[in-house]
Write a structure and sequence with these properties.
heterodimer, A: about 110 residues, elongated, B: about 240 residues
Chain lengths: ~110, ~240
């Protein structure tokens, strides 16, 4: 039940951000807020990605057997070179599962 | 163009972006079941929230046993970019009645914004461009629901799916979104600072480190951008 409340809360918050400027036709951003918003996606996504790659099990894991780190590094290179989202996801996932399979980390 | 032509062009133009979203939806459905959501809850989240990255982060956080307040706060931070989209499209929808603006806002995703902005930028005087918006948004919405359903079925059929490490799909997706955005020095610095602070604050309770890291990255980015502007202004005067 509480999960449904959480979903409704997420609905309210997501809708609020999307409807914000549609609701008030005269609303404008302060310049500092607008500048700050431009850094939100990169900062938030990086803050999720970096611990996900370096500490997938909750502790720092700097090791060549860490498939999250190796496949993530490859995905970063692909993304920087191609700027193509689908290519990044496809090559990243492919290398991740090949590595996990080669290292015997898949539950097969 | 007529209303129905605009609508159909909207459906058509968003198709390439949907190809990218379908695997994302399938993986979300699979992971949601693995994280302990019921199939109905997983479908409900896609139907009601309809925000891919926020949904991914929510189930990742829930899997890590984080409280609802932090999930909601994270949803807010991750979705702030939608306020930018809302601001960008505001001049084109302000004349529409509420029965249009409310659903169009609900369906305003990254993908819909990309094609709709393109349509509004073309300088023909079509009065029905909001029908294009509707067609693109509805197509995106339907494909998100279908792909979530496929993922939910897949997640239930494959035993021990949580041990496969499908959460890497989210990491790869976020890399694919974030890295191409790092085109300026302040953007790169913002990312580096956010990443380092996220590592340093990992042990904070309720994943508060994520918020600290995001805030640190934003502050550094804005600070560097303003410093560059001041330097440029100084050169102009010299």
């Amino acid at each position: 039940m509480s999960l449904w409340l959480l979903i409704l809360g997420m609905l309210a918050i997501t809708f609020m951000t999307r409807f914000s400027f549609f609701a008030w036709p005269d609303l404008r951003f302060a310049r500092a807020v607008e500048q700050g918003l431009h850094y939100v996606p990169v900062a938030v996504l990086t803050a999720i990605v970096v611990p996900g790659m370096l500490m997938p099990e909750g502790e720092l894991w700097l090791d060549w057997r860490n498939a999250y780190l190796l496949a993530g590094a490859l995905a970063i290179v692909v993304a920087a070179l191609t700027r193509h989202l689908l290519a990044t996801i496809a090559l990243g996932l492919l290398s991740f599962f090949v590595l996990r399979w080669a290292l015997g980390q898949l539950p097969l | 163009m007529s209303r129905s032509q605009e609508f159909l062009h909207g459906c058509r133009d968003i198709l390439p972006l949907i190809l990218g979203a379908i695997p994302f939806g399938i993986i979300f459905g699979t992971l949601a079941v693995a994280a302990g959501l019921s199939p109905l809850q997983a479908m409900g989240m896609s139907a009601l929230v309809f925000a891919g990255s926020a949904q991914f982060i929510a189930i990742t956080l829930l899997g890590g046993g984080v409280g609802a307040a932090v999930v909601l706060l994270t949803t807010f931070v991750v979705n702030l970019r939608h306020a930018l989209y809302s601001a960008a499209l505001q001049p084109f929808v302000r004349h529409l009645p509420g029965r249009w603006r409310v659903p169009l806002a609900f369906w305003l995703t990254d993908e819909a914004f990309a094609v709709v902005q393109h349509r509004y930028a073309r300088d023909d005087a079509s009065p029905y461009k909001h029908w294009f918006f509707l067609g693109a948004a509805l197509t995106m919405y339907l494909s998100w629901q279908v792909s979530t359903l496929i993922g939910v079925i897949f997640g239930q059929a494959v035993p021990n799916v949580a041990a496969w490490g499908l959460d890497f799909a989210m990491i790869a997706t976020f890399i694919g979104i974030a890295v191409p955005m790092m085109r300026s020095c302040p953007q790169v610095a913002s990312a580096v600072v956010a990443g380092l602070v996220a590592l340093a604050t990992w042990s904070l309770p309720y994943k508060l480190g994520l918020l600290a890291a995001a805030l640190a990255g934003i502050v550094v980015g804005v600070w560097l951008e303003r410093r560059a502007e001041r330097a440029l202004a100084g050169e102009d005067r010299a």
